[in-house]
Amino acid sequence: MQEAVGDLVSKPIVAIVGRPNVGKSTLFNRLVGERRAIVEDIPGTTRDRVYGTADWGGLEFTVVDTAGLQDEQEIASASLSEIARHTRDQATSAIDEADVIVFVVDGKSGPTSGDYEVGDLLRRADKPTILAANKAESQERREAAVEFYNLGLGEPIAVSAYHGSGTGDLLDRIVEALPEAEEEPETEGPRIAIAGRPNVGKSRLLNALLGQERAIVSDVPGTTRDSLDTQIEWAGQPVTLVDTAGIRRRGRVEQGIERFSVIRSMRAIDRSDVVLLVIDANEHITAQDLHIAGYVEEQKKGMVLVVNKWDLIEKDAQTMEDYRTRVREQLDFMPYAPVVFISAKFGQRVQQVLETALLVVHEREKRVPTAGLNKLLREAVAKHPPASKPGKWVKFFYATQVDVAPPTFVFFCNEPQQIHFSYRRYLENELRAEYGFTGTPLRVSFRGRDEGR
Is the per-residue pLDDT at 426 higher than 80? Predict the structure, then answer.
């Protein structure tokens, strides 16, 4: 098997904090360049944290859009002091885990007592903090942003997240404040992260794989708050196991360190080759499971879905296949991910977990011969030609694989801008049908012939 470790880098974390309805989600969408967070003019809309990658000046970092602080009923009855308390708790958690804090305030309403409380915390913290006065669409509001100097956090940057004005200056300040990206020390073999919500059995799985009590096993959710790296040898192959902090379901997130323990999971995923997403067989796929699976796919990491506590399920001959079908329907954006059913408590099929993960590592390193790839392209196009506009017929010239981990393919054609995402998916399915690529996402792009490789 080829060595699968690439240049794994843990990206810096930028957390966006602030009171409800100051425009955090709108700013998040602007920074990552897409509508990833729900944006409504209702305080508390973003109830789950959303993560995205931003790129500015060639530097990548992860942006965290923090969740709403209250639901609608709480907001209707909340006093200013309650809002300030919730904001303070969330800001404290963000300070603990993020590398840079962007404190968003409402440039329309001016400083509030809640802003001052958070400002006090941020001044005492040893974290770079950038003050963004949002909703500064007019010259009058931009000039009024100087009021936020009184928070003691330096010069406020007047921005309009909705219109995009001032966000370039904000990104410049963020990049200046970022620490250098930490490149992982070289290790032999792949890194395999164990991720999932609390209490699904991640630590039990790690212990079962190690054959000894190396991690705390407890029925109390959130026992593991730090990522623990353990190097082992499996069937003659060196492997590093990364046990990550759990991710709570919406509505069960406690105040304090647990709120942002999820960031450590994101860091671990960034620096891993394959992720074992552990779910509870009794609960099926939850919104948080889908969230972390989406992050794994976005980062183009390998994926194995591990269904734990299978011993607690009443079964017949069809139970496993029926469950697998439901899981694939819910994880329809990554149908390539293999599913393994285990009982970490009793050690059932635990060996199959690492065997499958190492298969995914191998698949991520797979190279397709150029001749075979172009034969597949000709046959795929003949079977199902791409949609074309009259007079601008799409013609493919050739294809090549330019990278591995994940496998990356470039298709050269005369009208790359006409290729619909559904045709991209079609070609990806043809690649998988012929060459497998179990458990790994693919990168597929289209270029004009004159663009080179």
Answer: yes
pLDDT for 301 equals 97
Report the alpha-carbon distance of residue 432 to residue 435 in Å, rounded: 5
Report the candidate in 270, 363, 237, 352 with the shortest Cα–Cα distance to residue 306: 352
Q: Which H/E stretch holds residue 398?
A: strand 396-403
Residue 111 CA to residue 113 CA, distance in Å, equals: 7
Of the chain, the end-to-end C-alpha distance in Å amounts to: 27
**Choice among 43-57, 234-248, 284-298, 435-449 with the minimum mean pLDDT:** 43-57
Q: Is 186 exposed, middle or buried (0-12, 13-18, 19+ CB in 10 A)?
A: exposed
Tokens of 362: 């191998």
For residue 46, the Cα-to-chain-centroid distance in whole angstroms is 16
What's the per-residue H, E or C state across 26-63?
HHHHHHHCCCCCCCCCCCCCCCCCEEEEEEECCEEEEE
CB atoms under 10 Å from CB of 64, counted, come to 24
- Cα separations in angstroms, 318 against 39, 81, 314, 336, 439: 42, 55, 11, 21, 23
